[in-house]
Design goal:
Blueprint: E1 2-5, E2 20-23, H1 25-39, H2 42-51, H3 57-71, H4 78-84
Antiparallel strand pairs: 1-2
Length: about 80
Amino acid sequence: MHKHHIIPRHMGGTNDPSNIVELTVEEHALAHKELYEKYGNWQDKIAWQMLSGQIKSDNARRELCRARMLNDNPMNDPEIVKKAM
C-alpha cells in the first residue's frame, strides 16, 4: 500500500492525516494520471509514469530535476526578465 495525498503537496496539500489515503500501487498511479489529465501538472505526470512502470525511479528523478529547471526558472517570469534588462 502507498500513502497518497488527496490534495498533492505541489498543489498546497498538507501531511495532515485527513489529506492522506492508502492506495495500491495501481490505484496510486491512476490517481496521479487523473490529476495530470485534469490539471496538467508535470509533478503528477512524472509520478504517474513512475508508479505505472513507464519510467524507472532514476529516470523519474532526472525528469523531476529537468522539469524543475524548466518550470521553476525565474527567467520564465516576464517581470523578472524585464528587470534584468
